[in-house]
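BUG: 3D viewer hangs when loading the predicted structure for this chain

Environment: internal workstation, default settings.
Expected: structure renders.
Actual: progress bar stalls at 90%.

Input used:
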Amino acid sequence: MSELEQYSAGSRTNIERPIKDPGMEPHRERMTDKSERHARNAERQVALLFGISVIGAIIAVWGFLAFPIVGGDLSATRNGAFWMGIGMALSLLGIGFGAVHWAKTLMPDAEVAEDRHIARSSDETRAKAVEIIKLADGESGFTRRKLIRRSLYGALAFFPIPAVVIFGDLGPSVGDTLKHTMWRSGTRLTKDPTGIPIKASEVTIGSVFHVIPEGLSELEHHKLEEKAKAAVLLVRVNPADLKEDPAKAGWSYDGIVAYSKICTHVGCPVALYEQHTHHLLCPCHQSTFDLADHCKVVFGPAARPLPQLPITVDAEGYLVAQSDFLEPVGPSFWDMRK
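Structure tokens produced before the viewer hung:
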């Protein structure tokens, strides 16, 4: 008989006589199953590991505060990173090892085999599952073992604190930063990106200019950040179409108005202008502002109008700012007091 025939004959024999189910291995009791003293010791060990997690979180926060980043001082950066790394590692490992030790020493370790049900179980089976969950809760000791439960709550409460502290101090208060831009009294309005000053006579009805403050292109540092805050749209409309608030009547010049380009929703650049409706549109989420009525929101998720830049002309006929914006530019959510 060839090897192929022998293999085929053996396969048929296996199909006719399937391998017997070996069943479950006998359960081996742990010391914590036989001795309450060992169980209490294991409980203390789990709580100790969760306590180490709390200490690790505290060390991470201490390392961040004790070694602030100083320009040019790499030793402070290294020390801060070292202690934050040690602290966060202890915090993570304490929770992980504590949970594993709890499961291996105190939770039930008997193996269970269950048939897989494809269809939805009956109400009786589902009720039985709830009972099993409650039984498992009792057997795991989560409700009964207060020391473990409370130390776990403490570890989980302290674990995210380093992240909150670190991410909360990534930079200055954004709301305060957006309250001030490069615009000052007498700063000329210039074309973006050339920096050429704009005369009022050059701005015809319906024309749109993307504007930056004079001197922006000469900055050596933080040029993009300053441009992002100070970018302006300059538009001229028929003065009769403007619905000006008497308190802001002097903020425009002969129908020329200037508004921040930064949408008050999430900060996208507002750059689409509909001349017939005098609407400014944000392309990101379709917030729409009425340019003729102080850029009030007429559609979309934006919460407040675009801030207006007060403008006038200087002795040479160039458009200049009267002052900085009188309210923060950009998204309203940066300033939670609004």
